[in-house]
Write a structure and sequence with these properties.
The protein is of the alpha/beta class and 433 residues long. The chain folds into 2 domains: 12-50 and 301-409 and 417-424, Aspartate Aminotransferase, domain 1 (Alpha-Beta Complex); 55-294, 3-Layer(aba) Sandwich (Aspartate Aminotransferase, domain 2). It has 13 helices and 14 strands. It has helices at 23-33, 55-63, 78-90, 106-118, 133-141, 161-165, 190-203, 265-277, 289-294, 299-303, 308-321, 351-362, 388-407; strands spanning 39-40, 101-104, 124-129, 145-150, 172-178, 206-210, 234-240, 253-259, 326-329, 336-341, 364-365, 367-368, 379-383, 423-424. The strands form 3 sheets. It has a 7-stranded mixed sheet, sandwiched between helices. A 5-stranded mixed sheet has the order 12-13-10-9-14. Strand 5 (172-178), helix 7 and strand 6 form a beta-alpha-beta unit. The longest helix is centred in the last third of the chain and has 20 residues, at 388-407. The radius of gyration is 22 Å and the shape is globular.
Length: 433
């Protein structure tokens, strides 16, 4: 019998990974098929936790279905693009017209298109670490090289502009800013963003701003649109309906270009060419954009004290504060917490081993920290989308698994008290257990 030649994947996938939907998620699906109830905290999917898209957006889409049966302009329908322009102008961004706005099938598609239109083989892009892994993957898929700039937990995951600039080389083409941040929940201060903007202008870097969580803010956090600070180089602002408007399945995102548009005409023409090749993005969902951006912003009630997202986040903070093993840089925005397991207590901790153990034995699915392109193995990411009582149960189960890990150490060490602050940058007091 002739031996069959295997069908192999492209070599271009060698440095591409997306563990958020990887082996652990597939194992969770297998357990569900066996009848187990899995608490899935690996993905920020509001619908899965009972959140609904505002009714006015659904109605806008339904009322325009008859206008959604054909292709539309490759950049998107005019009402959606004009709504993005109005939002940008209200935020103080200058020089944006509907011609500089591209509607895509979610921000995910736009990340790929903007990088594909920009990069030549070997070009470098500065990407935060930890990152949302699609950014690193998209750079690699488009023949670039992702250079990760560190965002340290000890500094509340806020990047250091000087550390960042030290990574710039002759091959650096762009810098990625994810603010509010996924996976850490950090919200960058104005001074930090202004320093990064000046650095990008100095080196003529394209500034790629992932601002999909722009209105998901807690306590006194202030969101500063990067496009208000970048003037003398090209700035691309990306956002969409998925998170703020709880409409992930609509697959609607946008990229708005500002700053030095004049010098970027060739690049923007290339981006329009790529947009034309896919004909257009999903049409029905585009009709919801104008209503979403111009209507009541219900996300604000969810993030205030008493709101569900605020209270779920507080449950996470309480769970960490009551743990013998965990600490956390207080998340100020977005839908996630990047939880650290204390190396002084569990020095041999491995995030992937822990995540599998937690899934198999406690039926809780989290994303290991290594999924987010960090060089350390003692973190994991969870979402604050579940109800508070569910998250309280999750942290009880996490503590049980970590107790077992501590008991399995050669010295059988199990800490009896927490000797230092659990919440980095918070006002929490030392807790005695």
């Amino acid at each position: 019998m002739t031996q069959r030649k295997p069908v192999r994947s492209s070599d271009g996938l060698a440095n591409v990974r997306y563990e958020i939907r990887g082996k652990l998620a597939r194992r969770a699906s297998a357990l569900e098929r066996q009848g187990y109830d899995i608490i899935s905290l690996n993905i920020g999917n509001p619908y899965a936790f009972g959140f609904r898209t505002p009714e006015t957006m659904r109605l806008a889409m339904i009322e325009n279905l008859r206008h959604s049966e054909g292709y539309v302009h490759q950049k998107g329908i005019f009402p959606a693009r004009e709504a993005v322009v109005m939002q940008q102008q209200e935020r103080g961004v200058r020089g944006v017209t509907a011609e500089e706005v591209f509607i895509g099938n979610g921000v995910s598609e736009l990340i790929d298109l903007t990088l594909r239109a920009l990069l030549n083989p070997g070009d470098e892009v500065l990407v935060p670490s930890p990152d949302y892994p699609l950014w690193t993957a998209a750079v690699n898929l488009n023949n670039g090289r992702a250079v990760h700039y560190p965002c340290h937990a000890a500094h509340k995951f806020i990047p250091d502009p000087e550390e960042l600039e030290a990574l710039v080389t002759k091959r650096t083409r762009a810098i990625v800013i994810v603010n509010p941040n996924n996976p850490t929940g950090a919200v960058y201060p104005r001074d930090t963003l202004a320093a990064i903007a000046r650095m990008a202008e100095k080196h003529r870097l394209v500034v790629l701003c992932d601002e999909i969580y722009d209105q998901i803010l807690y306590d006194d956090a202030e969101f500063v649109p990067m496009a208000t600070l970048v003037h003398n180089t090209l700035c691309c602002t990306m956002s969409g309906l998925s998170k703020v408007y709880r409409a992930c399945g609509y697959r609607v995102g946008w990229a708005s270009f500002s700053g030095d548009i004049e010098s970027a005409s060739e690049y923007l023409s290339g981006l329009e060419l790529l947009s034309s090749l896919r004909l257009c993005s999903n049409v029905p969902g585009q009709w919801a954009v104008q209503t979403a951006l111009g209507g009541h912003q219900s996300i604000r009630e969810l993030c205030r004290p008493g709101g569900r997202l605020h209270e779920s986040r507080q449950t996470i903070l309480d769970g960490v504060a009551g743990s013998r093993y965990l600490r956390l840089a207080r998340p100020m925005g977005a839908l996630y917490s990047f939880v650290e397991v204390r190396s002084d207590v569990l020095p041999d901790f491995d995030d992937q081993t822990f995540a599998l153990d937690l899934l198999e034995n406690k039926h809780v699915l989290v994303a290991p920290g290594v999924s987010f392109n960090v060089p350390y193995r003692n973190c994991f990411r969870i979402t604050n989308l579940p109800e508070p009582q569910v998250l309280a149960t999750v942290f009880a189960r996490i503590e049980e698994v970590l107790d077992a890990h501590a008991a399995a150490r050669p010295d059988g060490a199990r800490p009896d008290r927490v000797p230092d602050l659990q919440l980095v940058g918070s006002t929490a007091k030392v807790q005695q257990n």
